Amino acid sequence: CLRVPSGLLSGLVPSCLGVILRTTDKIVWANEFEPIELTCLIESISTNNPRIEWKKIKNGIPSYVYFQNKISEGDLENRAQLREPANILIFNTTRSDTAEYRCEVAAIDDQRDFDEILISLAVRVKPVVPRCSVPEAVTVGTSTELRCLENEGFPAPQYRWFHNSEELPLDPKASLKFLNSSYSINPDTGGLKFRRVRKEDAGEYYCQAKNDAGHAQCLPQMMEVYDVDILGIFLKTFGVVLFFFCLAACICHSLKRGCFHNKSHSENNYNWPGPNNGAEYGDADEGHFRHKSSFVI
Predict the structure, then answer these.
(1) Is-contact 28 36, C-beta < 8 A?
(2) Pick the CATH number of 20-124 from 3.40.50.10490, 2.60.40.10, 3.40.1010.10, 2.60.40.1120
(3) For all residues of the chain together, what is the average pLDDT?
(4) If we measure between CA atoms, which residue out of 62, 64, 38, 60 comes closest to residue 51?
(5) Cα–Cα distance for residue pair 274/15, rounded to 1 Å
(6) Is residue 131 a contact partner of residue 209, using CB atoms and an 8 Å limit?
(7) Mean pLDDT of 171-178
(8) In this protein, which residues make up the domain named Ig-like (predicted)?
(9) Residue 273 three-state SS
(10) Is 277 exposed, middle or buried (0-12, 13-18, 19+ CB in 10 A)?
(11) Runs of H (alpha helix) within the chain
C-alpha cells in the first residue's frame, strides 16, 4: 500500500483502503503548438494494475482520450501519450484542445475502488494580423476614428496604436508630447478616436494586437491632415458643373426633337386670298377706277 504524507488525507478513508488522486494544476494554460502535460498523480492505491482512463469533455459531451491502454481520441492519437503513472502529455497543443479533461482510475483491490479528477485546459492562440482602417485625409478641427480588429487570438487581445513608429499612450495627458492631443484609445475594441484633429496628427499609423501568446500588427498607413477640405470642394464643384452640363444637354436634345415648338401656328394656317381675276380696286378716296390691261368693256 502506498503511503500518504501525514495530514493529507484528514477526514478521508485510510490510505490503504482506497485509491486517491491529485493534480498539480486544475486549471492549465498552454500556448498553441507547444507541449503541455496534464498531471494525474496517484496518492494512494493497493491494486497493482488499476484501470486508467482519460476523457475529454467539450460542450458537455465526453469522448475518450485514453482507453484500453492506448490513445483513442482521433485528434490526439498522434499528438499525445500516457506518462507514468497516469499523466497525459500533449506534444503540440492546438486551439481545438481547449476543453475539460477527466482522469479516472479504477482499483478493484481497494475498498475505495474509484477516483477521478477534473482538469481544465485552455490553449492560448497568438493573434493574426489585425484589420486596420485609417482615413487617408481629414480636415483640421474635425473628428475621425481609426479602427483595428482581430478575431483569432485567445484570450481576446488588447490593442495598441503607434504614430510614426512611436506608441501612443492610453492617456495623452500623461505625456508632454501628446498633452494637447484630443485622441482616446479603447484597448478592448481597438478604436482610436480624435475629437479635433490637429496638423500634428498627420503621419503613419499602425495597430498592434497582443495577448499572452504573442502579438501581430498591421502595415503602417498614412493619414493626411488638410487645412481646407480640398477634396470635398472639388467633388462639390464637379457635381455642380456636371449637373448644369446634363441640364444643358437635355434642353438641347429636347429642342432638336421639337418639344418646345409652338404648335398653334402650324394648326391655324390661314389661306390668304389670291388675285381677283387680275382686277384690282383702288382706294375708296380716289373716286375713280384704274384701268388695267385686262379690263373689258
Answers:
(1) yes
(2) 2.60.40.10
(3) 83
(4) 64
(5) 143
(6) no
(7) 89
(8) 14-120, 127-211
(9) coil
(10) exposed
(11) 230-256, 263-267
Residues 131-226: name the CATH superfamily.
Immunoglobulins (2.60.40.10)
Return the closest-CA partner of residue 98 out of 128, 156, 59, 41.
59
pLDDT at 3: 45
Higher pLDDT, 238 or 22: 22
**Residue 124 and residue 152: Cα distance in Å, rounded?**
10
d(CA 87, CA 85): 6
Phi, psi of 8 (to 5 degrees): -65, -35
Question: Cell numbers at residue 294, please?
Answer: 385686262
| Statement: the pTM of the whole predicted model exceeds 0.90 | no
Query: Domain-by-domain residue ranges, the chain?
Result: 20-124, 131-226
Percent of the chain scored above 90 by pLDDT? 59
Amino acid at 77: E
CA angle 47, 51, 52 (to 5 degrees): 120
Q: Which residue has the cell 502579438?
A: 215
Q: Is 209 helix (H, G, I), strand (E, B) or coil?
A: strand
The whole-number average pLDDT for the span 229-256 is 77
Block residue for cell numbers 386670298: 273
Residue 192 to residues 18, 32, 130, 165, 215: CA-CA distances in angstroms? 60, 30, 14, 16, 18
20-124 shares its CATH topology with 131-226: yes
Q: Is the peptide bond before 5 cis (omega within 30 degrees of 0)?
A: no
